[in-house]
Amino acid sequence: MLEDLTPTPAPTSWPTAYPQGYAVVDVETTGLSREDRIISAAVYRLDARGEVEDHWYTTVNPERDPGPVWIHGLTSDVLEGAPLFVDIAEEFASRLDGRVLVAHNAVFDWSMIAREYARAEREAPVRQRLCTIALSKELGLPLSNHKLETLAAHYGVVQQRAHHALDDARVLAEAFRPSLHAAALGGVRLPLLECRPLTEWSASPATSGSALPQIGRQASGGYGSYQPAGWRPSRKRPACPYPNPGRYEDGKPLKQGMRVAFSGDTSVERDLLEDRAVEAGLHVATSLSRLTSLLVTNDPDSMTSKVVRARQYGTPVVDEAAFGQLLRDVEPAARG
Question: How far apart are CA 53 and CA 51, in angstroms?
Answer without folding.
Answer: 6
